[in-house]
Protein: RNA polymerase sigma factor
Amino acid sequence: MAPRPAPTTGETTAETISAAWREESARLIGALTRMTRDLDLAEDLAQDALVSALEQWPTHGIPANPGAWLMTTAKRRAVDTFRRAETLRRKTEELGHALSEEDGMPDLTSQVDFIDDDVLRLIFLSCHPQLTPESRAALTLRLVGGLTTAEIARGFLAAESAMGQRISRAKKTLSEVRAEFELPVGEERSARLEDVMAVIYLIFNEGYTATAGDDWMRPELTNEAIRLARMLAELMPDEPEVHGLQALLELQASRGPARVDAEGRPVLLEDQDRGLWDALLVRRGLAALERAERLAASGTPVGRYYLQAAIASCHARAATPEETNWRAIANLYDVLAEAAPGPVVEVNRAVAHGRASGPKAGLAVLDRLPEGALAGSHLLPSVRADLLARAGRHGAAAASFREAAALTRNASERALLLGRAEASEKAASPSS
Structure:
């Protein structure tokens, strides 16, 4: 028998448990759902394994393979659960045979097959057509993204209790319709693909610019979203939009190291040190975009993810902000506005036209938005403020920056907006 790991400090153990849970929870719940066919039970078993780790690791030491330990513990709890239920004896035997009789901790790969497919199955299950779009996103963020109910509620600007009820109702609906924990095929898979991509993009965005809290970014979520996008591209290699999504996420994530300064404060795109951009992610993103372009050239239609990736590639190919081809970006946003119309696209289109043709052109795009568009969001006033500042209307810009700062729920972003408001006020002062 291998020697028992040496006990570690409580702080080190707690950090390791937290990291292991962030890394393994989606795989754990996915694998357990496949084995038990019961989403609620899978969540309970995963949580039981986490509690066991909190109880045992501080005393017995951190196992060599934390993920394997969590999986094996959860599966043993599953066996115990089925043994207590006489009507599920058959499942007890099936699960029991899967466990090693040895005292040593088995390797994770010998315990769980198709671990990546299990996570992908979990995403498709969370995007079941019987659920509303809001419930699909919330459930996937909970099960796959690892967000707490409170974090999801902030992202949707909803009460935590209401979001908890939404997630509970979603799981109950899946149980009532006897949703299958299998990857859909044929037309059903294609029909559900758009929702799956939207959820992966939502997870990425929550990590890329956190909706609330003190941190500007949550890298664990962006990394998870990229991993899921790559898996989806492997599953559906003939879909250009899937490769477009992968390209978009990787190209945007490549800017991560330059998006905050040494003190963790946000750095705007035009002020970033592009030498800090992740060159590997840029290459991978451009390669994924090329795959999407080849498929599109054969007549397969493309959509908003491919177009957004093409926009991101314009930034990635510019060595300096001055070399950015804003005219090409503005043209791409015009196409995107037709393919996927909406106020967020219009706001970003205003930015592009403001850079390509001057701030008045950008403000003209914003002025055409319907009254009440993006009410409650900081996005519109922050972009308006930037365009006003570029047009030399510093007093109006300061007011818009402060309006945006009051609306954002992210502390880092609020500080950035207030700083720009102060700069605009100084520029507007007669003594400046």
Observations:
- Residues 377-432 form one domain.
